Amino acid sequence: MAKKRALISVSDKTGVIEFAKELVNLGFEIISTGGTKKAIQEQGIPVLSVSDVTGFPEILEGRVKTLNPLIHGGLLAKHDDPAHQGQLEEHGIQPIQLVCVNLYPFQQTIEKPDVTVADAIENIDIGGPTMLRASAKNHQYITVVVDPADYQTVAEELKADGQTKLETRVKLAAKVFRHTAAYDALIAQYMTDLAQEETPENLTVTYELKQSLRYGENPHQKAAFYKKPLGSAFSIANSKQLHGKELSYNNINDADAALQIVKEFSEPAAVAVKHMNPCGVGTGKTAYEAFEKAFAADPVSIFGGIIAFNREVDAATAGKLREIFLEIIIAPAFSEEALSILTGKKNLRLLTIPFDQAKKPEFKMTTIEGGLLVQEQDRYTLEDATITIPTKRQPTEAEWESLKLGWQVVKHVKSNAIVVARNGMTIGIGAGQMNRVGAAEIAFKQAGEKAVGAGLASDAFFPMDDTVEAAANAGITAIIQPGGSIRDEDSIKKADEYGIAMVFTGVRHFKH
């Protein structure tokens, strides 16, 4: 009776020698290729080359090795079908019972900063995915292993019963199809970028599991956190957690919101976020000064929130942070003294992110029932805008600074959005209201007397002059908004009536 056969061909050789030894001890004959065959052979393990089985040499610089009926017949034949078995016997094909394959390192290749297109193309595996898919399709009879983490399970089942359980083979086959789909998705993405296709007829994306989460937005919702292969290092998915308990679903969402806002600033800045909206933003000459302003902007809402800095957190800033209850602090770095101070709070999560490694903006994907919306991230700044000033009065230098800060923040606030700013800090934020004047009134109530002489930023135009009227009553002296309403003239007249300087940017910043 012919020995059972196992075909092993791997790029990732983790644990493969030990696995091959186990298989030989269990009565398998090993077939292998190239570097894998050499590695197995060097350990004194008997091994056949694919060429020994096919009677045909590897050709085209190794591009064609396993693409042969003597291999794929052994992979695809039904073991309990007399017609299939008769054809195998007729053509001298021996069945293969186990396949252990992983693929050319395409992802690792294109991650290299100096990779050439030729290198990338050469690392697109053809034979490997074909063997994997054939074996996974035939999982009723074949055990297929793509992940070294599964070697032990397979070996233990073979030792116990002489074969793996069907349930195990189904799980392994499913993993194979996920693996090859993810592999092909990366290749498709690379080739789509190479071809400069902006809206391909099929969008293929893949993500890797980073962690299972205890629950989602609410305890009754299951959730998990996935990261994008080749995604930006400037990401919560690629952050380094220095301290604190595991991140939750809401933590991750809020942390990303804070990160997106704080990266708007080149000067030292601190951003406090609660429920995906900023509750306080401050800028200054140091991280300490920036945080003082962010805290003062809304000392109530910051409780239980998330703080993001774009500068290292030093001991003085850490001392202030330790005084309040926070969920997460994000920064490029923490000084040793700051870490010593903050790690005294057991559950406080401390994350570092390399601010100098932000890649080009990625597309934002939003799921809907049965579909997906895809758009560019909103990276439009005042430097990109065509500024016009339709009012009689121009903003003063101080008002301009307030307007710029408001404009940087308002695009990160849920629409309808109004941000009131002054002296390098937000003093009032109105978010997510069904009408604009409602959002403004929330911001003015929060700002109180500090609104006198402040600047106001709106994410979209004023459909009528009521927001300008409310702004004037609150003491606002300068406004920045996109303009473009059919009733712009009403707002301009109202601003002139109260001596308010108003800036049009021509750019809307909806955020839903």
Description:
This protein has about 500 residues and is α/β, with parallel strands linked by helices. Helices cover about 35% and strands about 20% of the residues. It is built from 18 helices and 20 strands. The protein has helices at about 15-25, 35-40, 50-55, 70-75, 80-90, 105-110, 115-120, 125-135, 150-160, 165-195, 250-260, 285-295, 315-320, 335-340, 395-410, 435-445, 465-475, 490-500, and strands spanning about 5-10, 30, 50, 100, 145, 210-215, 225, 240-245, 270-275, 275-285, 305-310, 325-330, 350, 365-370, 370-375, 420, 425-430, 455-460, 480, 500-505. The strands form 5 sheets. It has a 6-stranded mixed beta sheet. A 5-stranded parallel beta sheet has the order 3-2-1-4-5, sandwiched between helices. Strand 1 (about 5-10), helix 1 (about 15-25) and strand 2 form a beta-alpha-beta unit. Helix 13 packs parallel to helix 14 and helix 16 packs parallel to helix 17. The longest helix has 29 residues, at about 165-195. The chain is elongated, with a radius of gyration of 31 Å. It starts with a strand and ends in an 8-residue tail after the last strand. The model has no long low-confidence stretch (mean pLDDT about 90).
